[in-house]
Design brief:
8-stranded parallel β-barrel, two-stranded antiparallel sheet, 32% helix, binds magnesium ion, 401 residues, 14 strands, lyase, globular, binds ligand PBG, single chain, alpha/beta, ALAD_AS, TIM Barrel
């Protein structure tokens, strides 16, 4: 059967130069150009009664002639076998790249999170330990802890954030006691502890105070370090907090504790399921108090790229050890920008909404979950991420085996 191949309109045969311009064709190439009609003269003449006669047996109509084409380059040769494809793959994905985010609550049972099927608020003792044991068994040895604070403990300044006996602090200690070589990351921001649902302290007129918040973040980070945290991760986007936290840690004897800065964190709709999990969405305005309904005065605008570089330079100068971009997939250009601009390790957060999208499509049977998750995570690596925070951490590591 003749294949419905349409010849492309005649184009200039030439060689693309490095800057993408077409160089004039070299004489030797003229004869090779598949769209040139001269080649047809070499084909057997077609009689009027056999309009679709083929030039050679088994060669579909429309095949460019001469056949085989004299191609100087055939990239498909390098894709011919799985062995070869594996051998020359440019980046790889390993459980070592994964940081598993874990929600904890101050109770016993693991509670499902409806907008994040397969993820739980773990009971801070048994459930948390069991999940970490499972993660380690597949090679994931890094976790980040997100505590769900009971509403009764939330205040407008979030002091529970640095309660030495708080849920976060207890969870960190428990993990380090049980798994001394586990890398425990923490979240530094006030939103899970703040009755207004903001990462910083909200003044009555709705302004989110920067410098006052930084002081609280320093106390929170030091308290997490005292509990045994290996890496504190400020996710609040206040200005100047990396330098202040570095100084506070150093002065308290924690020169060995690292800082992973959420340096390019965007005001994103993809955090919705996370805020469900922690009941941490910005609160409704109250009598005599204005509470901004979103985080746009501190998290970045989705349209901005250069601004991410500005944030990265500042955080690197202030002493960050790792730079993080968040969300992940819609912001891979920013991951690449930071990868190229900095010598620090780069982390990317495959956030709750991105997880929910894949889960929902997989549950409907619209996507192959394993293939789409592994592809997604590999693309983070290609964009330049060393570390990937993903709720798919354990499943992905199992699938990698
Ligand atoms: N500062 C808190 C914090 N740390 C991580 C996330 C979101 C993570 C996710 O969506 O998976 C958020 C929510 C927010 O900024 O509103
Ligand atoms: Mg900043």
């Amino acid at each position: 059967m003749a294949l419905p191949i349409q010849h492309a309109p005649a184009r200039v045969c030439g060689t693309a130069t490095r800057d993408g311009a077409l160089a004039p064709p070299r004489p030797a190439q003229r004869a090779r150009c598949p769209t040139r009609v001269t080649a047809v003269a070499d084909a057997p003449a077609r009689s009027a009664s056999q309009p679709s006669a083929r030039p050679k047996p088994g060669v579909p109509d429309g095949t460019p002639m001469p056949y085989p084409m004299e191609l100087p380059s055939r990239p498909r040769r390098n894709r011919r076998s799985q062995t070869f494809r594996d051998a020359i793959r440019e980046v790889n994905l390993s459980p070592a790249n994964i940081i598993l985010p874990l929600f904890v609550h101050d109770g016993e049972d693991d509670l499902p999170i409806p907008s994040m099927p397969g993820a739980f608020r773990h009971g801070w003792k048994t459930g948390l330990l069991a999940k970490v044991r499972e993660a380690r068994s597949v090679g994931v040895n890094q976790v980040v802890i997100f505590p769900k604070t009971p509403e009764s403990l939330k205040t407008s300044t979030g002091e529970e954030a640095f309660n030495p006996n708080g849920l976060a602090q207890r969870s960190i200690s428990l993990l380090k006691d049980n798994f001394p070589d586990l890398e425990v990351y923490t979240d530094v921001a006030l939103d899970p502890y703040n009755c207004d649902g903001h990462d910083g302290i909200v003044r009555d007129d709705g302004v989110i105070l920067n410098d006052e918040t930084v002081e609280y973040l320093c106390r929170q980070a030091v308290s997490q370090a005292e509990a045994g945290a290996d890496v504190v991760s400020p996710s609040d986007m206040m200005d100047g907090r990396i330098g202040a936290i570095r100084t506070a840690l150093d002065e308290s004897g924690f020169t060995h504790v690292s800082i992973m800065s959420y340096c390019a964190k965007y005001a994103s709709a993809f955090y919705g399921p996370f805020r469900d999990a922690l009941a941490s969405a910005p609160a409704a305005g109250k009598k005599n108090r204005i509470i901004p309904p979103n985080k746009k005065t501190y998290q970045m605008d989705a349209g901005n790229y250069r601004e991410a570089l500005r944030e990265a330079v500042a955080d690197e100068d202030e002493g960050a050890d790792i730079l993080l971009v968040k969300p992940g997939l819609p912001y891979l250009d920013v991951v690449r920008a930071l990868r190229d601009a900095s010598t620090l390790p780069i982390a990317a957060y495959h956030v709750s909404g991105e997880y929910a999208m894949l889960k929902a499509a997989a549950e409907k049977g619209w996507l192959d979950e394993r293939e789409s998750v592994l592809e997604t995570l590999l693309c983070f690596r290609r964009a330049g991420a060393d570390l990937i925070l993903t709720y798919y951490g354990v499943e992905a590591a199992q699938w990698m085996e």
